[in-house]
Amino acid sequence: MKVLDFPLIKITIAFIIGVITAYYLHLSIAAIHYLLLICLFLFVSTYLWNLKNNKKTILFGISVYLLSFFLGSFTLISHTESLQKNNYTHCKAAFETKQSLTLILREKLKSNDFSDRYIGHIKTISGKVYSGKIIVNVQKDSNRNALIIGNNIKIQTLLQRNKPSKNPNQFDYSRYLADKQIYAQIYCSKKEILVNKNIQKDIWYYCAKLHSRIIFNLEKSKFNKSEMNVALALILGQQQDISQDIIQDYQYSGATHVLSVSGLHVGFIMIFITFILKPIPNTKKGSFFKLACILISLAGFAIISGLSPSVLRSVVMFSFLAIGNHLRRTGNIYHTLLVSILLILLFEPYFLFDVGFQLSYIALFFILWLQPVLKNIYKPKNKITIYIWEALTVSFAAQIGTLPLCLYYFHQFPGLFFVTNIIILPILSFIMIAGIVVMIISIFTSPPLFITMIFEKSIYLLNLTIHAVASIDSFVIRDISFNLFHLWAFSLFIISTIIWIKKPSFSKLLYALISIIAIQLAFILTKIETEKEEELIVYNERNNTLISERSGRNLVFFTRDTVIENNRNINSYLVGNSIALSRITEIKNVLYFKDTKILIIDSTKTLPEKVNPDILILTQTSKINLDRLLENIRPKIVIADGSNSNSIQKNWKNSCLKKNIPFHSTKEKGYYRL
User: Fold this and answer.
1) For residue 259, pLDDT beyond 50
2) What is the mean pLDDT of the chain?
3) Most buried residue, 65, 120, 565, 673, by most Cβ within 10 Å?
């Protein structure tokens, strides 16, 4: 099947490339507008010429793809809220002094030990109209009157920009939030908030109200709290209250996708509805009725689950698959899959950079593309063996497709993923069906005790099974170094090998062999990059001082506490740079890196004689007279690491400003790299 012969596929690919280009190159709005207008003019001109002469020209095809490319770029830029004139990021005063903010709460996030967290939409700042999403952190207290979705609140506070990762090779939470159009946060207590009596009663309010009603009725039916939190994640995609231990078990067993409402859950619902409607004949009217029921059920599920982005994404994806199945066109499944991507990205182009979006579509594509090939390798006759083999092939197809991305993002591989999927699929099938019934009943009243008990025990059994698999620690391979070179090389190898296996030929075998060479080149390029790198890094550690000196593959960590086990900063750096630790040694007062002399002063205030350093590093809240010291040694820069108190760092910063010497606080700016 030549999927690429479908014109809309090429248009979708051009659109996606346009989105990626605008994301990484930060193209100007004016340039995109002009180029889009030129391409539109070219498209209309070539189209009219084609109609007049009744001929198809290559120029028309080029104009279509160029238009699609710049439309993708324009879509991303138009959805980048920080570029809008009335976005709160353009109100500099709000980041410098406390301002009066009014905003509406739209979504409840996972709470931490100190705060309840919400996503709010700003309406005004000091009386002026502004817009944009923001995270609201409300300090926890004994007051039970929690805020609800739809609350209009007023608060006098300071906006705080999202801070980038404080140490190298770690998850950049600031960029993650920026991709969701969230650029700042506020921190407050409940007594500082004025809640308006008028509640914004929109679809998010009613979804949250529905949610609260379901939870209230489940609690009324004596549903165990731990199992109920997992049930809410499985059916409604609400992970806010699941314990970290349970989440870790699901990660190590390779079943994280079970907790996040995704294609798996929506697929179960679609199969269940299809099964119920099976007696209806496949006539034209009957098929249309089935399609309408499926689409209404999926839309209803999206509303019940709170219209979260992951649920909406999966619902749109499976709605298109249901439409494709209804139309019964050859090869339609791949076409509808790509058209659903185009439709989603037209409304939410930043979904393209969401890990869940990437994994969902890749997993589904490989299940459709590779699973039939794996299934034909062996044809069992026994029903139990057929089930196990089908579960295995689906699991392997999805895992093979998503493997490069999983290694690139998470740097770990659960070796028993196939065991997990075989064991949990029957339990999960029952949980999904029972869960939907229980949730529907909970909308109206408290579920009967016997149904609640069965549902609760099935979730307990699922958690127990997941924990048993996750506890076999030796099968979880962690800290796998996997960079962008490896991602592209291994993806090319997997795709070219499957193409060759499906329809063997010499040219396809040649491509598969070239992909093996690409993998070797990826390792060679990684090795070259690793060996030529030389750097010194001062890390941001709260109660310790950590400095690394690297020359190629030779890496030394200097620290106050040399007995460091499973240090996250060290592990992240080693994995991210594909190197091994040479040694850990106790920190000295003076370090040399190339031609740079570095003086390190701690709480002991030990100062070597006649030292004129290029860099001064202050650690452990040293009680020195910095003004006098700077007068004597005049360093090029002063660095304060995370082991210093906030108050003393403010004094040091002022001292450096007086002497016109740059000051770098790792607490404020993150790690320092030389």
Assistant:
1) yes
2) 81
3) 120
